Amino acid sequence: MKSKPVTFLLSDLGITKSHSRPYVSNDNPYSESQFKTLKYRPDFPGNFGSIEDARQFCKNFFTWYNTEHYHSGIGLHTPEAVHYGRTNQIMKERSRVLIIACKKYPARFKGKTPKPPYLPSAVWINKPNQENNTMVRV
Questions:
Q1: Residue 133 belongs to a domain
Q2: d(CA 80, CA 63)
Q3: Alpha-carbon radius of gyration of the chain
Q4: Between the ranges 11-20, 27-36, 52-61, where is the mean pLDDT highest?
Q5: Measuring CA to CA, how many Å separate 65 from each of 11, 27, 35, 68?
Q6: Maximum distance among all alpha carbons in the chain?
Q7: Distance between CA atoms of residues 126 and 120, nearest Å
Q8: Using alpha carbons only, what angle is made at residue 37 by residues 32 and 38, rounded to the nearest 5 degrees?
Q9: Is residue 102 part of a domain?
Q10: How many domains does one find in the chain?
Q11: Rounded (5°) CA angle 94-98-102
Q12: I need a surface site. Which of 6, 10, 11, 51 has the fewest CB within 10 A?
């Protein structure tokens, strides 16, 4: 009996192979970004005195990260604002403020009315292929 390499078998079956490694944190750019933000906070301690200290720090950090921190990947909105559907109102208010600023200081904007940062309609780690949604981790 002859066998073919798994890669060829998957290809013949129309299955897209994932190159992610299971249980490895650097496969998720969102988690990596969040971890870097955590580590580079000015109040991040070198060491935690206890597990309770670490939990309290993380509780405060994740509250700040989700409710106060503006994320560039989601149009400088907070995850909370996106989750609860407040982005349209925020975008309208930002546009209004930018128009007022442009009228008040036209030289600063070189005659071009600025627009708020783009808000993506969807965010993906690995966007699924529209033709074939089957993903297998090998």
A1: no
A2: 10
A3: 22
A4: 52-61
A5: 41, 21, 11, 6
A6: 79
A7: 15
A8: 95
A9: yes
A10: 2
A11: 175
A12: 51
Alpha helices in the chain (DSSP H): 6-12, 29-39, 51-67, 79-83, 87-104, 106-109
Provide the whole-model pTM.
0.65
Which residue, chain included where needed, has tokens 């904007």? 109
Q: Angle at CA 78, nearest 5°, toward 75 and 83?
A: 100
Residues in the chain, how many? 138
Cβ neighbors of 83 (< 8 A, separation 6 or more) are none
Q: Say if residue 92 is in the same domain as residue 59.
A: no
H or E segment to which residue 125 belongs: none
The predicted structure's pLDDT at residue 1: 46
- What pLDDT digit, counting tens, does each position of 25-48 carry? 556 777 788 888 999 999 999 899
Judge whether 119 and 75 are in contact, CB under 8 Å: yes
